[in-house]
Records
---
Amino acid sequence: MKEQVQKTFEALFALEDIREVLREALPTGPDPGEEQAIRAGVARVRAILDDLEAGTGSPSVTKIAGSLGIRNREEEIINIQPIQAAGRLTPEARKALIAYGDGYSTCDACRKPFRLDKITKPPIAAFHEDLARFLNMDVARVVSGARRGFQAVTSTLVGKGDPVIVSALAHYTEFLAVEGAGGAVKEVPVSKQNLVTPDAVAEKIEAVLRETGKTPALAMIDHVDYLFGNVHDVAGIGKVVHQYDIPFLVNGAYTVGVMPVDGKALGADFVVGSGHKSMASPAPSGVIAATAEWAPRVFRTTAMTGDLTHRKFGIKEVEMLGCTLMGANLIAMIASFPTVRERTLRWDEEVKKSNYFIDGLLAIEGTKVLSEYPRKHTLTKVDTTGSFDRVASTHKRRGFFLSDELSRRGIVGEFAGATRTWKLNTFGLSWKKIRYLTEAFQEIAAKYDLPLATGTGPA
């Protein structure tokens, strides 16, 4: 680990040790022994900061709790891992984790009616309203991941044997949500361009009607799929679905938090997003939003009464199991939200950077892009069978040679050992890093005598 990164972590840990002394002190203040411990801790922090400034010093902490390594992935390297790019925490979110890490930290000022979305200190209630406005929906809730949003909707609307429309590119969690509710997935085939079209959805609905005699209970379509990162015409699909009076869920796991998403313009009855994939939030976290028509059903409150105690919990929402995303995960999501909201307005710039890199990669002879091109998203699937895999076929490290070369240049996140088809995500990288990334791939190509298009070599 680089000295300055190592010392930054050590300083943070040393400050936490001081914090622990303050936590053990009485409300009246530290006793003499605790004051001495604080002074010793401050001296330790000063020494670490001196090393940090000078870029010197040997590591004094290499493990947390004796077994956990220090994760320095985002401090030292460029990470193009497909599912991690838009989940990097903002500085505000990292500070929030420090301040609100205790288990029920969100519940310090919880008062009647004792429900998460009603808490005003910290401003959780206001955040729920902000989320709904952000997505142009009527009601929003935070959940522990997009999958819990799918589950809330399917358990509300899908019964035993009910058909549910999904795409042939649907995420496995959509399948599980339908299966858990007792339904049956009916997949819409994709076009040659790996796109889900409104016409294909209409044809599938008609086929399901002929096959089962039942109107599908729900349609779930990914705004951007996880396999190719293609942007699908969900607005057009929404119009088709509503012609059959089928409720429509838009899976925005790869769009909510990175690009503008207007739920009502898309024709969505439900919009589901992922906090840890696309909203700069810790895992697990996510959001589900609904229109006024469907919110009373998916956010229904319990009507059950205990047979012995006659207890009632009428304010608690059944699909949310009362309260959902509590503690530091939620607070970090709130802390990141101003940045997340603002960055969606710069989506065009992110797409430009994605295309700059992909163009540079395509300049390596034999490389193809399997996603739609030019790119409309930062998640991309590429095919390097005709380029880097040619090297792998004779290299002693096989496909891992590419991982080795990238690692030496401070780049990680590609599928280790994969040199045929693999995915990457450039979201959030600065232009400086985008250019470095592009040049690194072209340098590796040149090293192994893979031809480059004229004028596309490293600057």
Note: The two ends are 28 Å apart (CA to CA).
---
Amino acid sequence: MMELLTEAPFYYNNFSDATDRNESDYTDYSMDHDKLQQSLNIMSVIVYSLAFILGVLGNGVVIWVTGFKMKKTVNTVWFLNLAVADFLFTAFLPMSVTYTAMGFHWPFGKFMCKLNSTMSLFNMFASVYILVVISVDRYVSVVWPVWAQNHRSVCKASCVSTGVWILALILSAPYFIFKDTGPAYHNENIINCFNNYAFSDDYDSPAINELRVFRHKAMTITRFMLGFVVPFSVIVSCYTVIIHHLSRSRTLASQSSRSFKIIAAVITTFFLCWAPYHIMSLIELVVHTDDNASDTLRHVITYGAPITTSLAFLNSCMNPLLYVFMGQDFKDKVRKSILNVLENAFQEEVSRSYTYTNSMVTSRSNNKSVSDSEV
């Protein structure tokens, strides 16, 4: 599950970077605050459920088509791996739905808290670095087309994809380590899934609190740099050069326009969905490491965290929609594949009966011919 931000009061879910569980965080809020928070929680449940349904079905179709119905190419390898990353993430979303619907009570145990939370960051790192690989691949294909034609292969693309998965696993592993479960301060019957950066329930010791703050900063900044700034700097650089080359060659531009638009749409969607999340994580870091942080920033986290997290969730179900609306080849394959499945499902008995009858007639005809020839 996603690492949603917030140690903010009353919003304590298993995506949170929350480490501070002091009584001072649980202040009284107005009825308007409670109603708004409840509305945001309901919105989160609806969005998570929608992302689960569309994500599992949509990415499942992409995996089916790119993995089994389309000719294996370098591009299909990239999009297959991107779909697998999104599918794995959305498959865990029912736990997020349950956790939010139960008032942020985690009933699935510590291991699933760790695994569920890690999957969101694993998906984020895998997705963004697959997009980096796609961008570099497009850059090489446009700038050095002869070299690309001689060296690009499905086998090499598969090896690069494996490297991306390993890198994503390494970068997301710390989130598995730091995730923990424990009773909520305001209600011991509610079990929270949260980040325990100090591996301790001691919030009074200055040394432990310093360690907690240091690790919180290190994790947030590392995630922001390696999960957003660095990969998107590479992506923007690649596409800047690509656009420059395409503008100089109309023929090349017309040949690359469709695939270029699809990839650009996928990258833009990823940026729009994940940028608010990373910005919110930085705001949260300021609030939870600065005792003088304003109440305005605290309210921004309380109300903004569920919105930005829901937006990031939706990214995992957006790509299949982009392929369908923008990719004619993919659209044709999906339509033909679904029609074939439906034809086989609805005409199976008729076909079997027809085939059996034909075989019997053919068999009798052959026997009769043999008998006549013997006579």
Note: Residues 180 and 194 are 6 Å apart (CA to CA).
---
Amino acid sequence: MKRTFLFLMLCGCSLVMRAQTADEKAVAAAVETLRKAMVDADKAGLEKITADALSYGHSSGKVENKAAFVEAIVTGKSDFKSIELADQTITISENLALVRHKLTGETNNDGQPGTVNLGVLLVWQKQKGQWKLIGRQAFKL
């Protein structure tokens, strides 16, 4: 009886659980690359992971293109000391991926310490076999 119950539970769990596809894994890795490049203020890394047509929306409503986004991170105007991501979901449709997560972190924008607690929508596009960030919009939680 116990074995039957355990077997049924495992079967039920396997129906609920879903393995990540290769693209979902690649998008998750791209998100982590972006997170690390932002914390490290890595200009080359930021330029490599973002699309030329990037539209980067802040929770304040400010929108930056790729050059302005990279410049703000590299110069410390937008300085992330730490970024933690939670509750991430990834949805893929052909060459587009939508990523939603909660972002918390420590900042030091223009030398002013602060914290952030945001919801974020990232839009990724597969370009020449690589996932590139093409859109981002944050909102205050």
Note: The CA atoms of residues 47 and 123 lie 16 Å apart.
---
Amino acid sequence: MLHSHLTTLNAVSLVLETFKGEGPSPEELLAGSGICAADLNRPDTRITTNQEMRVCANAVALRRDIGLDLGHQMHVSSYGMLGYALLTSATFGDALRLALRYPALLGTLFELSLREDGNHIWFTASDYREIPTMETFNVELCLVSLKVICDDLLGQPMPLLGARFEHPAPDYRARYAQRFACPLHFAACSNAFAFDKSWLDQPLPLADAITHQTMAERCRKQNLEFTGRQAWLGRIRQLLAAQLSAAPGIEGLALQMNCSARTLRRHLHDLGCSYQELLDELRFERAKQMLGEDQLPIHRIAEQLGFSETASFRHAFVRWSGVAPSAFRA
């Protein structure tokens, strides 16, 4: 599954660094995410995308164009072993194809693809399925960071032929010109930027066959480990998803996973999440689906998601998405 529910602390650390000295404390930016300062000192910490988005939502509430700044700071070196595997690739095209092979290591919330259109290559980010109110932020973060990666790989700014965005032009549209020096199109058919096809064959200045082979193999193993952990998490999600109307609780879920509640808690902690966070995430996903179908009244949706009161469901949905269920349905 593309939309990995685990990611690194890269974006969270950048949020804290961006606001350093500007007023909001780290505690304010981390509020509601379940991430503490100690977690930031452990490089192997994994968090859920919901936790990351909570921190980013706190940042967007303070500065709506923050996605453009965060993406500009996400250099290729931010991606660890994958970053160095990309840098040591033989050509620009080889590097991009390698990046697309490991979306989990990129931590993307999108389906990334290279789409050929004559002499143009459109680097496209599609299939966003996360919090609707954060879509513009995530598009900005994704496309700007991809442009930065391209520039880092080539060792020079790569000229763009155009950029397009599905969302309407924001009131800070002028800032887009700082990140995308090319014709801009809003309310477009996709989120993408274009470059000349000839760049795909461009040799990279830091290419090194031996180092690349070593780093690419490490990426393969890391991806296997990462996806293995995701498979275990996927089993838990599958069990919980089938029981949303009467959630089993941590004890009941542990029995179904053939382990103790203590073991289950420890494994979930190692994965950067908790039972309640997973339950909320699944409820939110199902709620969005049911509201989109526009058939059941909201009080029945609340019942099917295991809420004893409709008001509790409304409060939870606002906390998850930033809008009321009725507004989301509209």
Note: The domain at 242-329 is CATH 1.10.10.60 (Arc Repressor Mutant, subunit A).
